[in-house]
Amino acid sequence: MINRVVKNVEEATKGIQDGMTLMVGGFGLCGIPENCINQLVKMGVKNLTCISNNAGVDDFGLGLLLQTKQVKKMISSYVGENEEFERQMLSGELEVELVPQGTLATRCMAAGYGMPVIYTPAGVGTEVAIGKEVRKFKYNGEEKDYLMEKAFESDFAIVKAWKGDTAGNLIYKSTARNFNPMMAMAGKITIAEVEELVPAGELDPDQIHTPGIYVHRIFQGDHYEKRIEQRTVRKK
User: Domains, the chain, ranges and CATH?
Assistant: First the structure.
């Protein structure tokens, strides 16, 4: 029987070193691998390149790694909630590659599929296209320019799921699915932290979002804060 379980977050993150590229699941603060991020802060690994939809907030999520200046480069789509990110970017301390959100997701998927590049109309004629190949394709009877984007390469992918089993199969809950499935597919080594870890065979196969074949290490997290970036309530 395949068993991908490791004892704890320390064992799960073993091998992550300075200068590596990490894919980090989540959208905003929803579905982020909180335990692994906290462990990376403790480990003190530096000069990291992080591929993530967002950069967390100032005192939570990937924002913790930015506070300790462990991140050399962020490849992201939405970064508007983090003042420290903004400060480091404008001062030149942090290298930033902004990527359209759909392109970010598709470049992750391409890596999982083993495709070296994708072509997309998103970004053509903008700063996103500087230095990149543009080709014309006829599609649905219309010829237009498409931008070539490379699939991401990463040393580790770190994702968070609601439930997982000992074989590495994962189920995400509601919107926490977001970027986690495609990043789990794409990682050279994929680490999954879960809220609940069950024996293989207990998950309904029809409910599994990420098959265990993509997961190399899995562990049950200790605590999840599950913050909300901005809470809006109706006035009484």
Answer: 9-100+153-220 (3.40.1080.10), 117-150 (no CATH)
Phi, psi of 81 (to 5 degrees): -105, 10
pLDDT for 235? 84
Find all residues with CB under 8 Å of 65, minimum gap 6, and list them. Answer: 37, 40, 41, 48, 50, 56, 71
CB distance 53 to 77 below 8 Å: yes
Burial class (CB in 10 A: 0-12, 13-18, 19+), 144: exposed
Q: How far apart are CA 40 and CA 17, in angstroms?
A: 10
Query: What is the Cα–Cα distance from 91 to 102, expressed in whole angstroms?
Result: 28
Cα separation, 154 vs 85, whole angstroms: 22
Mean residue pLDDT of the chain comes to: 94
71/76 Cα distance (integer angstroms):
13
* Overall pTM > 0.85: yes
